[in-house]
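Self-study notes.
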Amino acid sequence: RKLADTKKIPSKFGSSISYKHQQQNIFGETETALTLSAQNISMQDLDSNGLTTLWQKQLEKALGIAALPESDLIKLLISSKTDPQLPDPVHNGLLHAAIHERIVVIVRPESVMAISGIKDSPELIEKVFDGKVGWVPFRKNGITLAQALETAWKEKSNRVNALVVQHLGLIVAGTDFEEVYVKIKEIIGSAESYLHSLNIWDVFDQA
């Protein structure tokens, strides 16, 4: 399992990474699996021991549930592991399943989070990122947030290649890690340039 150079990706609390692939189940059938970050693993320390694998089909069924308490959602994620001996997944695992791309990365770059917290942030994100980054309002419940994310990704225009989820972070997806890394770098660069133009980035940079 090659993760490329994930140490290049900004690693803050709440960051996670995943990739979808084909894997045989206990019946010898091939189905889609989702390998993603395990709980309490920094992407700076990520290796094969910091990953776990879930069955994508079980997660997609969960996306059809009207609502689910957070404790039950965590149990559902754990029960979806391809092997009970694997470590438990990050709590935002369902968000990774909701985006139907091979690679999904969730990060919390300070510059992007700063912009998302400014008044009229949806319009500001449209302006700063030249219409290439979408906006998803926060939902407290994990199921409804994942459903909103799935809808936003399906309905986005071809120009949009990432989403900012209010209070959560930046979600970038693509076909390979290098493509996703380049997108993240470009988005962070645009965010920092905008904050520099307001003479306020140094405040965030030193925090």
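Second protein, same conventions, sequence then structure:
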Amino acid sequence: TLLSLLRTDQRRGKFVEGLARLKGVDLQAPENQNLRALVRATATDQHAQFRKKSSVASLKIAEAYYVRVLSALGTAPSTGEKAELQMYLAEVRAARGDKSGALALYREVAAGQDPKYQKAATLQWVASARGREFVEAADALASQDATGVEAREARLRAAEQLAGKREGAAEALQRAESLAKDVPDSAQGVVAARLWLQLLGDARPRSSE
């Protein structure tokens, strides 16, 4: 059977060859549940090996096996097991230097609204994003908890980032005002209030002398 063949391949260290045997196999089919469980277990075991020994080979195997299990889940929303596996795969891709691949996964889990993984994914998205995507990530975090410490920091950074560009000044002003009014007694609210006043002053027309 495929299950026995895969186990034999793995005992021989032929993880990639074993995975290739599963091409076209529906791991979600009831008769393949044991096979699916082995593929998932292999991914997590190899991931754990990387964490312990920093083995690049284990990292590559973990990635391939995570991808195979996730492919069986198709286009289902990023909740439950899918969200969990995407978080693991994102960690693996980040460790391999594939920051854009990791970022895409964190963003997808953040959009999936799984109560267990959404905030962790959004925080990772915020930590990794740059430019306009950082502003989007900050907004996603704020939509979950607008006045939490992490959200306040992200909202402030988004306003400051936009303020640094002429075309972003008007949006930065709105964001700074909103944060200053939402959390006036917080450190972020105080800084936002200063930024708001600064941007208001910059926006006023200069009188000619």
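Instructor comment on the second fold: The longest helix spans residues 33-53.
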